[in-house]
């Protein structure tokens, strides 16, 4: 990044994914006073006092369960889960997501009865899930990636552990989740800052482009990339120039409308905390919360496991 700034003399920077790259790139963008928009590197990367860095939208682990807890808040108190089991992958993403899970438990009075960590790669989730079942937890937070998430769901089914809700942190909003798990992959909740069924301008067109050009039916990461570029575009158009101070100032002082929603950035370069809650229903990733973007009625509590 330093090379393209100092030697190639680029006019604009575009960050993206993953957070590890963004964490390294943000201080370079700041050093050279160039506007930079990306997913960011979770909350710590936005707590450095940067003036030129933005997360529109961020993939903020510390917000990951915000939408799920918003959905739980719509339920009558006597229907909400009472005990939680949290199984967390032992890395920075797992720890970031765990914060949002724990905060929600505290807000809604859900007792944490299991709070275990595991190293990746995970060979078998049976012992972790067995402990969760024995604890009587009626909500399971499978706070991991795709591979270990698949193992966790398989262990839940084999042990006939059926809490009211299962929340999977990363990996269940891609088509491979259902192709790998089949019927067992249904009814799992998750969080995302982007979705191909959002009601915002441009989503339908981008869905068509992704399908026609690349055969992608649920282009979540394509949409993320587009949105990150769109924020930068709005900054340039609003500033009326490529002056980096003018771009950064415009982004900080205006509401930016995108395919991911409207963002108004604070002093950290972040929008208000949010996350869309999803649930896999009949093999489709549906939006559940907030209510103004809901695409299907949530299935809660989770039905019994089906034999396949």
List the helices and strands and how they pair.
Layout: H1 2-6, H2 19-31, E1 36-37, E2 53-54, H3 66-73, E3 83-89, H4 92-107, E4 111-118, H5 126-135, E5 139-143, H6 146-158, E6 165-168, H7 176-181, E7 188-192, H8 203-214, H9 220-239, H10 244-253, E8 256-258, E9 261-263, E10 276-281, E11 284-289
Parallel strand pairs: 1-2, 3-4, 3-5, 5-6, 6-7
Antiparallel strand pairs: 7-10, 8-9, 10-11
Helix pairs in contact: 5-6, 9-10
Summarize the structure.
This protein has 308 residues and is α/β, with parallel strands linked by helices. The strands form three sheets. The protein has a seven-stranded mixed β-sheet, with helices on both faces. Strands 1-2 form a two-stranded parallel ribbon.
Structure commentary:
The structure is a single chain. By secondary structure, the protein is α/β, with parallel strands linked by helices. 37% of the residues lie in helices and 17% in strands. The chain has helices at 2-6, 19-31, 66-73, 92-107, 126-135, 146-158, 176-181, 203-214, 220-239, 244-253; strands spanning 36-37, 53-54, 83-89, 111-118, 139-143, 165-168, 188-192, 256-258, 261-263, 276-281, 284-289. It has a seven-stranded mixed β-sheet, with helices on both faces. α7 links the parallel β6 and β7. α5 (126-135) packs across α6 and α9 packs across α10 (244-253). The longest helix has 20 residues, at 220-239. The chain is globular and about 60 Å long. The N and C termini lie far apart (50 Å).
């Amino acid at each position: 990044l330093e090379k393209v700034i100092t030697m190639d003399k680029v006019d604009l920077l575009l960050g993206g994914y993953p957070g590890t790259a963004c964490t390294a790139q943000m201080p370079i963008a700041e050093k050279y006073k160039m506007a930079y928009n990306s997913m960011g590197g979770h909350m710590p990367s936005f707590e450095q006092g940067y003036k030129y860095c933005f997360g529109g939208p961020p993939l903020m682990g510390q917000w990951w369960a915000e939408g799920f807890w918003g959905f739980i808040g719509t339920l009558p108190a006597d229907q909400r889960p009472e005990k939680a089991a949290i199984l967390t992958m032992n890395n920075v993403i797992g720890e970031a997501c765990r914060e949002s899970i724990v905060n929600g438990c505290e807000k809604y009075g859900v007792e944490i009865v299991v709070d275990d960590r595991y190293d990746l790669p995970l060979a078998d989730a049976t012992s972790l899930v067995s402990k969760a079942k024995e604890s009587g937890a009626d909500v399971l937070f499978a706070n991991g990636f795709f591979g270990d998430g698949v193992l966790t769901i398989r262990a839940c089914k084999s042990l006939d552990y059926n809490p009211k809700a299962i929340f999977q942190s990363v990996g269940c909003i891609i088509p491979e989740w259902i192709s790998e798990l089949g019927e067992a992959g249904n009814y799992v909740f998750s969080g995302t800052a982007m979705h191909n069924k959002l009601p915002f301008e441009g989503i339908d067109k981008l869905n068509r482009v992704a399908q026609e050009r690349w055969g992608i039916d649920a282009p979540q990461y394509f949409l993320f990339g587009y949105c990150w570029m769109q924020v930068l575009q709005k900054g340039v158009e609003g500033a009326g120039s490529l002056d980096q101070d003018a771009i950064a100032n415009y982004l900080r002082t205006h509401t930016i409308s995108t395919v991911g929603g409207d963002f108004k950035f604070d002093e950290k370069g972040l929008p208000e905390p949010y996350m869309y809650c999803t649930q896999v229903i009949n093999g489709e990733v549906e939006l559940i919360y907030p209510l103004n973007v809901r695409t299907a009625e949530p299935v809660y509590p989770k039905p019994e496991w089906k034999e396949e």
